[in-house]
Amino acid sequence: MQRHDIIVIGTSMGGVEALTQLVGQLPGDLAASVLLVLHVSAQHRSYLPEILSRSGPLPAHHPRDGERLAPGRIYVAPNDRHLLVEPGHVKVVKGPKENGHRPAVDPLFRSAASSHGPRVVGVVLTGALDCGTSGLMAVKREGGVAVVQEPRDALCPDMPRSALEYVSVDHCVPLVELGPLLTRLVDTPVAPRSRKRSRQVETEVKAMTVDVSSMEDPPSPLEYAKPSYYGCPDCGGVLFELEEHGFLRFRCRTGHAYTAEALSGSQQNQLDGALWAALRALEESASLSRRLATKARQRGHDLSAQRFEERARTSEAQVELLRKAMLDASPSGEASSGPAAPPESAVPGEPEQTG
Question: Residues 276, 279, 282, CA angle at the centre, nearest 5°?
Fold first, then answer.
């Protein structure tokens, strides 16, 4: 009889503390493989496996691509790589980012749901924005169990709240009850998969693999989504939109994916960058025009000097208007944006977490 022997966990802000507490509750003979994604900076090595190995009886490590799954082990997604699950083993790939993250929570959840169906337990912990919601939907669609940390118990309640809003969650518990709950679920028999795999989930997982075989027959978002009016912040391609139970998200042809909230944040970041670039260009234009006006007067070309001075005054007036508009705008923190700057680590050697 099959059991819930695949546990996938997703978290971001506040995740190190939550994971440290959780793994301390799990037994050393846990008859399940635990795979987890914590959003971390791509530029720094993650010490999360060492932290988790010290915090509980289960050994944790960054897996190699193709490594076999074994019970009683914790597989931690490495920096700048997606962690995916296939029948009996893992894939570690540098696929397209999702919600601006690599590793990302949703690809792990979808791949586990597609490959192991009802055997999967998906767990969404503390974190910003709405990462994990789409992946947890896939877990439920394929017959798995959805577990969410009680939002009031989370350091950052956004991810748990989003999952509760859009997914028919099976269990919502505080962190102190999560370890015993997972232990019980692992011992619970599971009925075999009762229907064919979701073609949509399979296609989205394939978009992340970026291997030779998938590139020979690239998955198309048109199989499950329709073109939108928006461009991909990562590559500029057309985004295809998909709405599931009111949850709106987007994916481009090359595989970059966004929820509506993450896309809005990324657009705000792009707009901010564009405004500062425009300000720089105007200031440089005004400076160069003043310089050209001075040289023209030195040569006695008064009409040219007047023309350059007028151009400089126009640019300076535009600079003043643009700078005032930018400084008067609402703080970007009021509308949560894409990947935030990683907060200072509270524990020496702790991986930097990004929203």
Answer: 150
Neighbours of 218 (CB within 10 A): 12
Phi-psi region of 309 (alpha: psi -120 to 50; beta: other; left: phi over 0): alpha
Rounded to 5°, the CA angle 79-83-85 comes to 170
Please state the pTM of the whole predicted model.
0.85
Instruction: Of 34, 78, 59, give the one whose Cα is nearest residue 179.
Output: 34
Q: Which two tokens stand for residue 197?
A: 């795999």
Give SS3 for 42.
Answer: coil
Residue ranges of the chain whose pLDDT lies below 70: 210-219, 330-355
Q: Is 325 exposed, middle or buried (0-12, 13-18, 19+ CB in 10 A)?
A: exposed
Q: Identify the DSSP state of 152.
A: G
pLDDT above 70 as % of the chain = 90
**Residue 184 tokens, joined:** 């019980």
Q: Which two tokens stand for residue 37?
A: 């994604």
